[in-house]
Amino acid sequence: MVLEVWFLGTSASIPTLNRGLPCIALKRRGELILFDCGEGAQRQMMKAGVGFSKKMKVFITHLHGDHVLGLAGLLQSMGLMGREEELQVYGPEGLGRLIEAFEEALGFKLPYEVVVNEVGEGVIHRGDGYFIQAAYVEHSVPTLAYALIEDNRPGRFKPEKAEKLGVPRGPLWKALQRGESVEVKGRIVKPEEVTGPPRKGLKVVYSGDTSFCEAMVKLSEDADLLIHEATFDDSLIQKALEEKHSTASQAAEVAKLAQVKRLVLTHISPRYQDPSPLLDQASKIFPTVLIAEDFLKLRLSYED
Q1: pTM
Q2: Pairing of strands 114-118, 87-91
Q3: Do both 171 and 282 map to the same domain?
């Protein structure tokens, strides 16, 4: 199985000619998961071709406009497209009032139900083979970072062990590979009898806006992909501290301490028409790093 990650908006605060406002899309087993929803998100989704899946959820990190004002347009566009399926939206306290204000001010009645989940730290959602964990990070308003963490997968199947236990080839082997017990001649054969140790699933972490903090390091531990804001280069460290954002080197330090496999920097200040200085600074601390551009697409797959 492959998990696709689309960067639909990678600017900070205001859009530029080349960068939209924050929005990250994950596609997994036919489900679409959005992290943040900046202005024009639905157009970016159309342009990228990610679609508007019936199985869809939205996770908002905080209520600053550049991360949430696209939600009204997305909700209305999906309504006009005839969506009928319920939509689950997650975020910090106040998100429900904001969506109510959208509906009241714009005067639209959606043909589907929007279920708002105002959440805090911990496991906030369990899906098909994964869960979403949230943690408060350091910003000027209550802000959550999110991790999508897949469940462990069954260990590698050992055919010789299955044969030794008398399990015939075919459907019973497939059931054992899925982690299911099977019955053979009145005896129950468990998956752990014919497989190696469980194998880790994929883990993707998204920071939203944050200054350097231990909570971000802990949430990111052993992630396959860390998507971290890098609003400023290192020369603006004081501004980053004052506004509770991160520099490129601080994002790289999180990746290094958390021992992630890959780091992508996003939420790039519009002052950087050429973001290469941020890449240079980050790569000195954590070499497996790149700068996100709108419509960058990454495919994550299992190493084993």
Answers
A1: 0.93
A2: parallel
A3: no
Residues 172, 52 within the same domain: no
Shared domain check, 203 and 134: yes
* Same domain, yes or no: 139 and 234: yes
What DSSP element (H or E) covers 232?
none
165 in the same domain as 38? no
Domain count, the chain: 2
Work out the mean pLDDT of the chain and round it to a whole number. Answer: 95
Other beta carbons within 10 angstroms of residue 18's beta carbon come to: 12
Q: Give the separation between CA 181 and CA 255, rounded to whole angstroms.
A: 39
Q: Which two tokens stand for residue 238?
A: 């004081």
* 222 catalytic per annotation: no
Is residue 218 domain-shared with residue 268, that is, in the same domain?
yes
- If asked whether residues 164 and 137 sit together in one domain, one would say no
Catalytic residue among 66, 209, 224, 233: 66
Angle, CA of 129, 132 and 136, to the nearest 5°? 165
Token pair listed for 57: 């959820």
With a cut of 80, say whether residue 1 has pLDDT above it. Answer: no
Q: H or E element: which one contains 4?
A: strand 3-9
The structure tokens listed for 38 are 């900046």
What DSSP element (H or E) covers 87? strand 87-91
Give the per-residue pLDDT at 8: 98
- Residue 14 structural domain: 3-153+199-300
Q: What confidence tens digit (pLDDT) does each residue in 102-148 have?
A: 988 888 789 999 999 999 999 999 999 999 999 999 999 999 999 99
27 pLDDT band (50/70/90 cuts)?
Answer: very high
DSSP for residue 116 = E
CA atoms within 13 A on the CB side of 89: 25
- Both 243 and 145 in a single domain? yes
Q: What is the mean pLDDT of residues 202-227?
A: 98
